[in-house]
Amino acid sequence: LGPMKLEPKPPKSSVARKRRRSLKVEKVKPEELEDTVSKEKTETEKTIAKMFDVLKINKKVRLENLVLNRISFAQTVENLFALPFLVKDGRVVITVDDNGSHHVSPRNAPAASMITSRKVVYSHFIFRFDFNDWK
């Protein structure tokens, strides 16, 4: 690398350029469009609503009866994707009875003040389900 030279260098002089202002100044105001945001529900939101409607009618449903579609594996996966949203929001509860079968029941979601004060504690679980289990 070699020895370093410690000689001071003169500062570079900077030249300020003048900006040219455009002669024609226009204020651009785009027109506002009404209702550009679509309010349509996604497929997941529709599946969540259907699932909660089933739970409102039948107060206690076995998990496999709620989620499993024996004709379509894809629909079963969609149901499995939608169920955690209801659980996370506190709108349903999953319980296990003495026989080991899982039951899903609707419930009122906790108030926001209960969540922020940490009086309500959420618990999570992992549900493994693949094509062989579906068969």
TrEMBL record:
Residue ranges, compositional bias (Basic and acidic residues) = 1-10, 23-40
- Region (Disordered), start-end ranges: 1-40
**Keywords, sorted A to Z:** DNA damage, DNA recombination, DNA repair, Nucleus
GO BP annotation list? DNA recombination; DNA repair
Q: Does the keyword Transmembrane helix apply?
A: no
Q: For this UniProt entry, what's an example GO CC term?
A: nucleus
User: Cellular location of this protein?
Assistant: Nucleus
* Residue ranges annotated for the Non-structural maintenance of chromosome element 4 C-terminal domain, each copy included: 61-135
Subunit structure, briefly?
Component of the SMC5-SMC6 complex.
Family (UniProt): Belongs to the NSE4 family.
The entry's function note states:
Component of the SMC5-SMC6 complex, that promotes sister chromatid alignment after DNA damage and facilitates double-stranded DNA breaks (DSBs) repair via homologous recombination between sister chromatids.
Q: What is this protein called?
A: Non-structural maintenance of chromosomes element 4
**Species of the source:** Helianthus annuus
Upper lineage is:
Eukaryota, Viridiplantae, Streptophyta, Embryophyta, Tracheophyta
